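Cross-check.
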Amino acid sequence: MEEQKENRPQAAPNEAPSPPASAACPPGRQHCRISDGETNGKISTASSNDFSDPVYKEIAMTNGYINRMTREELRSKLAEFKLETRGVKDVLKKRLKNYYKKQKLMQKEPINGNSCYDYICIVDFEATCEEGNPPEFTHEIIEFPIVLLNTHTLEIEDTFQQYVKPEINPKLSNFCISLTGITQDIVDKADTFPQVLQNVVEWMRQRELGTKYSYCMLTDGSWDMSKFLNTQCRVSRIKYPSFAKKWINIRKSYGNFYKVPRNQTKLTIMLEKLGMNYDGRPHSGLDDSKNIARIAIRMLQDGCELRVNERMHAGQLMSVSSAVPLEGAPAPQMPRYRN
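Predicted model, tokenized:
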């Protein structure tokens, strides 16, 4: 719910072999460990790479060549390797650099298989709102969508969507209806949040998330979890669900990976910079989630390791360092009611 959240080059290096299907999880790699009982939920990310190895000097020289290439030269080289050619120049440079780096490191030694999630669950809530967002207004979730992204195939494998009946402000404002496209009749017929959350948990269990497959949540910004879900759990008098306590904030990941300022990480701007247009109805939770998934797919293709970077602790939003061992979300469970 974005309205409420925020010189000529030298010759290029010799052609490398065709890239694997996914920059994050090439086919044939092992699933991440997921059970706290087996591994304490931690996956080692330690690397045995020796940065004095000549391969890193070669990568640095390649990066220098790429930095001096024009946009058309970048697009031509990407097309030669059958890589995506859309995006602004900085995105194209990052894409080509990561491709060459990965090929060189794969030639040096196999890439560690324990460094990714099997699935990413993209969530973008829609909530009750009023024009101007007065500070005293309590936002209640009215749409709960999930887009299930398979990181091995880089395809959207499934979706979930249910609307939610608000309790504190059961009558939607005209502004909210116009913004989200969710009508009063839709929410009047919907289940309350605890029942919808129970349906979410069952849907995730049926897909064996957190048991057979490792996964994590992903959002467009911090507000979905730290504000909307946190507030909704208090309103519904239930504890915050453990599976949503850590997530990937794709705005942070995008900004860090492509080296762009925070004001260039809004959903529509990220799509534009990657050479894509928004597909669907803006502020539909499901459509927003699908477009966020398209960004995640492109980032994975470009070599980004999407990993948890935010969490909730004692009701407060906190950052997660990239130095922390990789950890999948636990098997989903319905939280208990508050006393």
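The longest helix spans residues 89-108. The beta strands are 119-122, 126-127, 141-150, 155-163, 215-219, 246-249, 310-313, 316-319. Passed to J.P. for a second look.
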